[in-house]
Amino acid sequence: MKKNGSTSNCAEAMKSLALQADFAKSQRIALPMSLVGKRILLIISAGIAAYKSLDLIRRLRERGAKVVPVMTAGACEFVTPLAVGALSATPVYTNLFSREDEQDVGHIRLARDCDLIIIAPATADLMAKMANGLADDLASTVLLATDRPVLIAPAMNPKMWAAKPTSRNVAQLRADGHAFIGPMRGEMAESGEAGLGRMAEPLEIAAAAEALLDDGPKPLAGKKIIVTSGPTHEPIDPVRYIANRSSGRQGHAIADALARLGADVVLVSGPVTIPDPKVAKVVHVERAEEMRDAVLTELPADAAVMVAAVADWRVEGASPEKIKKQEGEGPAPLRLTENPDILKTVGHHAQRPKLVIGFAAETQDVEKNGKAKLARKGADLIVANDVSPETGIMGGTRNRVKIIAKDGITDWPDMEKEVVAEKLAALVAERLSAQ
Ligand code: C5P
Q1: Of 249, 275, 264, 152, whose CA–CA distance to 209 is shortest?
Q2: What's the N-to-C CA distance of the chain in angstroms?
Q3: Distance of alpha carbon 415 from its chain centroid, rounded?
Q4: Is 220 in the pocket of ligand 1 (CB under 6 A)?
Q5: Predicted TM-score of the model (pTM)
Q6: Fewer CB near the last or first residue (10 Å), C or N of the chain?
Q7: What Å distances lie between residue 415 and 250, 399, 418, CA to CA?
């Protein structure tokens, strides 16, 4: 096997950049070290999405994992082994036929001496080789030789993903016990075509790896928790609706974090474009009234975490037919009527869960409005955030929240929504065990 060393000035520069990045991160906030002590073999195959694998290496390392990269020959055309090696701070393996490295590590040891193998991006070609047991380069040989779990993050043109041979290979790989993350729906980097084929984001892949390797404590085992997430869509007519900018990222991350602590999570999700987390049950709804019905059906529960950005109003008497534009008559007037308040209903319900948590998206007087909401909604905690457009919180990946309780307010610093989720899940566990 051929290792790519890093002795040049350029390598030093890359190392220094990586160190600077690590230093900057250390100044911010400690991330959950959920992959501490785990050794991950990262196979990078030939796709434009390989540029995201550089970030994936950092995401895995900041969670405590050691990342050993293997690159196919094609992958080296998209990102350099130098960049991959500098970010992983380990040798990069690219070639099966190097006597020196084969003696040093050996492809069999490489295949076994890890806790998990991630393939990101996984091309249609590499999956086809895997599904058929071909082993003609280092990556495919390692995959045939391994007895470790394998997580596959495919990335390809939507037509290649939908092609019958690919579907057959994916079905075979699933039957062989391999795990998949994605592909996701979205625009392709190289062709601009939209569809299913975009590689999952590095954070999603890191989360899937955490889920696969999770052997942590389960303080919420046996607890049923309802989580709402995403926006609601309130129809105007069959083709138009009123909505908001909620992505569902925060609510889904919370559902996921609670499930990782062992809870039986029922996620009631409005329309979102992100994948369902691995939880006991996901109910997909469109409208606020549907969301309320789905939530009430799930009572009794031990806790409810209401993260959804439920539309306050819906259109009264939505039209069953598309409202036509009438030349010269101006827009059709919309009459709005109030939606049910799901949090308030649950907070005052005869079967009220022991712990009820609401969110407050505010653009002004965050604390004052949060406190008022705590009382009005009958919640135990309100997670308040400032969603003014300049914060980028709504629809973004980071969040900065205040935890408002009857006995005081705690400020959490700016952090990834996944980290907010983990901290909140830990708080739920603490509160439920104290009761
Ligand atoms: O009153 P406001 O919409 O700001 O309240 C926010 C909180 O209430 C969030 O937890 C949200 O999920 C919940 N909510 C709800 N049903 C509504 C409106 C808000 O559950 N109709």
Answers
A1: 152
A2: 58
A3: 15
A4: no
A5: 0.63
A6: C
A7: 12, 6, 8
pLDDT value for 211: 85
- Quick check: CB of 241 below 6 Å from ligand 1? no
> Which pLDDT does position 7 carry in this prediction?
38
pLDDT in the model for residue 102? 67
- Class of the CATH domain delimited by 224-434: alpha beta
What is the mean pLDDT of each successive set of 10 residues along the chain, which is 435 residues long?
Answer: 46 47 44 81 97 97 95 96 96 81 74 96 98 96 95 96 97 94 82 86 93 88 97 97 94 95 96 90 97 98 98 95 88 92 98 97 85 96 86 78 93 90 96 88
Which of 306, 349, 368 best tests ligand 1's pocket when mutated (most atoms within 8 Å of CB)? 306
Task: Decide: 374 in ligand 1 pocket, CB within 6 A.
Answer: no
Q: What are the extents of the domains in the chain?
A: 24-212, 224-434
Nearest residue to 423 via CA among 255, 254, 263: 254
Query: What is the longest distance spanned by two Cα atoms in the chain?
Result: 81
Per-residue confidence (pLDDT) for residue 103, from 0 to 100: 63
Nearest atom in ligand 1 to the alpha carbon of residue 308 is 12
Could you give the CA distance from residue 255 to residue 282 in angstroms, rounded to a whole number? 10
Single-letter amino acid, residue 142: V
Q: For position 330, what pLDDT does the model report?
A: 83
Read off the tokens for 101.
């490295």
From the list 4, 169, 244, 339, the catalytic residue is 244
Q: How far apart are CA 20 and CA 424, in angstroms?
A: 30
The pLDDT value recorded for residue 13 is 44
pLDDT at 161: 96
d(CA 121, CA 187): 16
CA of 188 to the centre of ligand 1 (A): 35
* Structure-token pair, residue 179: 């795990």
The answer to whether 244 is a known catalytic residue is: yes
Residue bearing the CA closest to ligand 1, atom 17: 341
Tell me the C-alpha distance between 432 and 221, whole Å.
11
Q: Which fold has domain 24-212?
A: Rossmann fold (3.40.50)
Q: Give CA–CA dist 227/291, Å, rounded.
A: 11
Asked if the domains at 24-212 and 224-434 fall in one CATH topology, the answer is yes
- Residue 137: C-alpha distances to residues 2, 85, 130, 265 (Å): 12, 19, 11, 43
